Each structure stands twice: as structure tokens, then as C-alpha cells.
Amino acid sequence: MFTWFLATKVWMSQIIDNETWKITPVTYISVEENIVTQIKTIEKDWYNAVVLWTNKYNKPTKTRIFKNVKEFKVDSVEWIKIWDKVNLSDFEWMWECHVTWVSKWKWFAWPVKRWNRTIARKTHWTKYIRHWSTMNSCITWRSKKWIKMAGHMWNENTTLKFREVSLIDLDENVFAIKWPIPWFNGWSLIIKKA
Q1: Which pLDDT belongs to residue 64?
Q2: Do 101 and 111 belong together in one domain?
Q3: What contacts 79, CB < 8 A, 6 or more positions away?
Q4: pLDDT tens string 67-120
Q5: What is the pTM of this model?
Q6: Of 144, 194, 187, 130, nearest to 165 (Cα)?
Q7: Structural domain for 98, as ranges
Q8: Which are the contacts of 95, defined by CB distance < 8 A and separation ≥ 6?
Q9: Is 70 exceeded by the pLDDT of residue 138?
Q10: Domain match, 87 and 50 both
Q11: Comparing C-alpha atoms, which of 116, 45, 123, 52 is closest to residue 82?
Q12: Same structural domain for residues 99 and 181?
């Protein structure tokens, strides 16, 4: 039985209880059909895993058919077959879940911001104050291996654990998780059973 699947954040809203008139903030998550496209075994790949694909492109090509591809490690692959489909109807019993995504809040950062590098002196008419020091060694004229460069910042995985599921709508393939998820609308999430 699958305990995880790929989903997409749709929007954030509120649910009002008719009896107590209590307002609960929720995040609506859309679940398209997850398709098993590859099964990895210990004999071939040294570990057991399943590769899921979802969100098909409107104009697919030979190499790009689906937007979201994710590999999940499993204990055994005997009960899984290729081209199996995972739907929201398989998770009707789910009332709590873990939500995982990649926190891409800082797209690109220079070394002063990313690594807290020292800035250049502000005297002698320099205008490049926030540039970093030399990258090359004066002896070999090669870049140092340990140099801390500019680049993507804060791109680690973030997980919110034990989020309560407030609503499951099988007709629209949408379910609601209690409390907001700080992530962009239309971006992919990984939902795991708590």
C-alpha cells in the first residue's frame, strides 16, 4: 500500500464550521494521478525504490513528458507493478500527513550575504564594496577548492509534520490541510502518511 504521493498546492482559504462558526485556515492541495514508471530492486540497483511521475505537460516531448518526478524508497517491491496508478481515493482514510517541499526563498545570493564574507574597505575611492577577495592562488593561478562562491541559497527540504486533513473531495481530486503551507501556488509537494 502506498503511503506517499506527489501533489500540487492550489490555494489557501478558510473553512467555516456551521455549528460553532469557527474559522479554520486551510491549504487546498490538488492530487493528479501518480503513475509508477520505474521499479528499482536490490538485484539491479542495490536498493528498493519506486519512481512516480505526475502532472503531464500539455505538449510533451520525447524526454519531457511529466513535470514532477520523484523516487521513494520502499522495503519491498513485490506488491508494486509498473504503470500502477496512485489516486486520492487510495487515501480516503488519511486524517494526518507530513508535507515536504524545497524551500527556495533565496534564488541567488552573493558571498557576502550567503557566507558572511568580509566586505572591501570603503576608502580609496572603491565602488565595489561587497565584492569578495581573490579566488586564485598567486602561486598556481588556480581557484581554491574551498572557496565559497555565490549561488543558490536555502534550497534544503522543509517538512511540516502531523498536519490535520480537514477535507477530502474525491470528485475534484482536492483535499484541504489545516493551517497554511508557506509555498507558491502551483508548485509540487510530497505528501506522506503520518
Answers
A1: 80
A2: no
A3: 1
A4: 888 898 888 888 888 888 888 888 888 889 999 988 766 678 888 888 887 777
A5: 0.73
A6: 194
A7: 4-105+156-193
A8: 164, 165
A9: no
A10: yes
A11: 52
A12: yes
Mean pLDDT score of the chain: 84
Q: What is the pLDDT at residue 133?
A: 59
22 and 91 both lie in a single domain? yes
Radius of gyration of the chain from its Cα atoms, rounded to whole angstroms? 23
State the CATH number of the domain containing residue 73.
2.40.30.10
Yes or no: say if 15 and 28 are a contact pair by the CB < 8 Å rule: no
The pLDDT of residue 161 is 92
Q: How many domains does the chain have?
A: 2
Q: Are 41 and 125 in contact (CB under 8 A)?
A: no
Q: Could you identify the residue written with the cell 509534520? A: 161
Average pLDDT value for residue range 158-174:
89
Q: Which residue has the cell 490555494?
A: 11
My answer on whether 51 and 128 are in the same domain is no
3-state class percentages of the chain: helix first, strand second, coil last, to nearest 5: 5, 45, 50
